[in-house]
Specification:
Length: 557
């Protein structure tokens, strides 16, 4: 039996010399934030920005095995034989096996979960993987399989006035965000966190379907996060900071393909005055180009300054060279023959300031969505921003234990009344009515267009182990809310979630276990009030309670 195991698995094993281009998946439980916390402590290279992810641990931190960053961990050999194998320039490895589950009792909740979908009930994700490299060529095959029960739940209340339904479609016809992914059980297999790359020193070029994260945010990111499934893209990126005479740089340039969900805003569609309110999306894929660049000035230790920019168009609307790159603006004269700009753009500026002496960091991201005005004269128009701060407090120095405090604020709601009256919003688009999405979920901040969120975290930390509490206040799509109820000036209906979560990760030998229990009280669910004729103005809203449970494990070979 030992001989059979060796024959089956020997070609999948890893070199002890370190695998130079193996990435750390965006959202990796315990591992990803462990590196960031170690940087706060001053234990890792302070020139790595954590604003261009996925990370390449071997290249960025010179670690032989990015899945085992803590040298005090105890690991064992599952196969009872050599788990590492190399022959000449060829090296190979089994990637960590990932199993995640999620359960919502009343309605969908949550984001930054990759291939998982917004759904009530139970769903699970499986992701095995293999990594191999030969000289500068690396191949990472890490598919993702998701299965969701996807049962029915109460969506936009059927007792809303017809005009409110019409305005709902005014807004959600400009973005591909279905409330429910069909009426049946959902299952899908993706390429997941896979890539083929050519790597040279600190640069990498290739094709990938990996999830991306741009910017310094922890809970949200304006342009790139792992809320939506990864998409096919060409990538040219750094794998470590590139040092120059004025400081170090990190960045990524991508050209990708985005797909639609194939589902309408509501299930089933709403009929109004004999017509279907849903306007079908074009049956065409979208081309996305994007760039992120981060600069760490040599004169200010720990400070990172950067920008992001993205542009998307339907494939049939790609005309000239400038349409294939994110650097060129879409500002142009609108004519009667072409009344709509068929290019959808957004960008942001950000900073992250790391203070290892204080074991703290501060970060900020500020962006504009399809904005063609003067930024200096109208900085608030079509804007969104993220602000956060985190600090580690020593708790038990002899055991290397700390308390982590974190606060993050995300504002996606548009302060411009003119934009609100256009049923506009971050990630919405008239010319590209799929909006800034892939397969029915936003590419950026998971709270979506018009969402506002405040989050506070307190956690106990010891190595890879973490136990914490998280308190959130999440206001759903204020842009739609003010657009739908602007006539009545009704300020009572904000759909607001208050939630408290207990969560944590725990490593044991080769395993990493993770769990989360979150209680969510939704006030005015789906913006609905329970009002009867003749009642007073201030009446109760449709309040519901949802319990979300998450659990999973990662096995590191």
């Amino acid at each position: 039996m030992r001989w059979i195991k060796y024959v089956v698995f020997s070609s999948l094993m890893v070199s002890t010399l370190g695998l130079s281009a193996q990435s750390l998946t965006v959202g990796s439980k315990a591992l990803e934030d462990y590196y960031r916390r170690e940087q706060l402590k001053g234990n890792l290279d302070s020139t790595v920005s954590f604003t261009v992810r996925p990370l390449i641990p071997y290249s960025a931190f010179k670690l032989k095995d990015g899945a085992f960053p803590d040298s005090t961990e105890i690991r064992y050999n599952l196969l009872d034989t050599e788990n590492e194998w190399t022959e000449g320039k060829f090296r190979a490895k089994l990637l960590p096996f990932i199993f995640q589950t999620q359960f919502n009792t009343h309605h969908p909740y949550g984001w930054n979960d990759g291939a998982m979908i917004p759904a009530k009930g139970f769903q699970m994700l499986l992701s095995p993987g293999i990594y191999a490299e030969y000289g500068p060529l690396s191949i990472q095959f890490q598919p993702e399989i998701v299965v969701a029960g996807n049962p029915a739940f109460e969506t936009f209340n059927k007792d809303h006035y017809d005009i409110i339904f019409a305005r709902y479609y005014d807004f959600y016809n400009k973005i591909d965000l279905p409330v429910r992914f069909g009426s049946k059980e959902y299952s899908r297999a993706y390429w997941g966190q896979s890539s083929i790359r050519l790597n040279y020193k600190g640069m990498s070029f290739g094709v990938s379907t990996e999830s991306l994260w741009w910017g310094p945010g922890m809970r949200n990111s304006l342009l790139m996060s792992n809320t939506a499934p990864g998409f096919k893209h060409l990538t040219l990126n750094t794998t470590k900071p590139i040092k120059t005479a004025i400081g170090s740089f990190e960045g990524q340039l991508i050209a990708g393909r985005l797909e639609g969900s194939g589902f309408g805003p509501l299930e089933p569609d709403k009929i109004y005055m004999g017509s279907n309110l849903y306007v079908s999306k074009p049956n065409d894929w979208r081309y996305l180009s994007g760039v992120v660049l981060t600069w760490q000035p040599k004169w200010v230790s720990g400070l990172f300054l950067g920008f992001t920019k993205s542009s998307q168009s339907y494939s049939k609307d790609l005309k000239g060279f400038s349409d294939y790159l994110p650097f060129f603006s879409s500002n142009k004269t609108v004519t009667a023959d072409e009344p709509i700009n068929k290019r959808d753009e957004r960008g942001s500026l950000f900073l992250r300031w790391l203070w290892p002496e204080e074991k703290a960091e501060l970060y900020f991201e500020y962006g504009h969505n399809n904005y063609s005005g003067d930024f200096l004269l109208e900085p608030a128009t079509a804007r969104a921003y993220i602000f956060g701060v985190r600090k580690l407090l020593p708790f038990n120095r002899s055991r290397n234990e700390n308390i982590l405090l974190g606060v993050e604020v995300t504002q996606m709601g548009d302060p411009s009344l003119d934009d609100v009256l256009k049923a506009s919003g971050w990630y919405n688009s008239v010319g590209v009515p799929h909006g800034y999405t892939n397969r029915g979920e936003v590419l950026g901040a998971g709270i979506g267009p018009g969402g506002n969120m405040q989050s506070v975290e307190v956690s106990w930390i010891s190595g890879l182990k973490r136990l914490g509490l998280q308190l959130d206040r999440y206001v759903h799509n204020t842009d739609f809310y003010y657009y739908a109820y602007i006539d009545s000036k009704d300020f009572r209906r904000n759909w607001t979630d208050f939630s408290l979560a207990a969560n944590g990760e725990w490593n044991y030998k080769n395993f990493i276990f993770n769990a989360k229990l979150q209680a969510i009280q939704s006030l005015n669910y789906q913006w609905y009030l329970i009002q009867q004729p003749g009642e007073k103005y201030m009446v109760p809203g449709k309040d519901v309670f949802n319990l979300q449970l998450q659990a999973g494990l990662t096995y590191r070979f």
